[in-house]
UniProtKB/TrEMBL annotation:
Gene3D superfamilies: 3.30.70.100. SUPFAM superfamilies: Acylphosphatase/BLUF domain-like. It comes from Bradyrhizobium jicamae. SMART domains: BLUF. The lineage of its organism: Bacteria, Pseudomonadati, Pseudomonadota, Alphaproteobacteria, Hyphomicrobiales. It holds the Pfam family BLUF. This is BLUF domain-containing protein. Residues 2-94 form the BLUF domain.
Length: 130
């Protein structure tokens, strides 16, 4: 059984956001495979949304790192459902750059505490970058 984690958060990044995210992404592309984690990161300029999946212990370690990261705040967990099968098995961390147009989806998830539309969006986003 695999653990999963879907959250949204508010960015604290300023003008250097794209550089910071490039740095997060380059760390994730090494560290996520080492920990057996796969997932997706979305960034709208104002908010982050991330889905991660892997073993319970390794996901907990990553949660600890991400939760104390000062590059975002107000982190809201939307889902932590256990699963048999990976959703994003091909991706250490799928990310396709800042996407301002999706801020409505991220803001709605933050307000409505509901991750369903967000996961559908992530599925479509990953299908597009395949
Ligand atoms: C929104 C966001 C998502 C992140 N996602 C990952 C990730 O998937 N993998 C990763 O290794 N680090 C990720 N990081 C960076 C970690 O928070 C942390 O800085 C990094 O893993 C180094 O861990 P450490 O501070 O415990 O040494 C993310 C940071 C932010 C702000």
């Amino acid at each position: 059984m695999l653990a999963t984690w879907l959250y949204v958060s508010t960015s604290t990044l300023g003008q250097n956001a794209d550089d910071e995210i490039a740095s997060i992404w380059s760390i994730a592309r090494v560290r996520n495979p080492e920990l057996g984690l796969t997932g997706v990161l979305l960034f709208s300029g104002l908010h982050f949304a991330q889905f991660l999946e892997g073993s319970d212990a390794e996901l907990k370690r990553m949660k600890t790192s991400i939760c104390r990261d000062k590059r975002h705040t107000g982190l809201l967990t939307l889902q932590t459902h256990p699963t048999e099968q990976r959703r994003y098995a091909r991706w250490a961390l799928a990310y396709a750059g800042r996407a301002t147009a999706i801020d409505r989806v991220l803001s709605d998830a933050l307000r409505g505490h509901d991750g369903r539309e967000l996961l559908d969006y992530m599925d479509r986003f990953v299908a597009d970058i395949c």
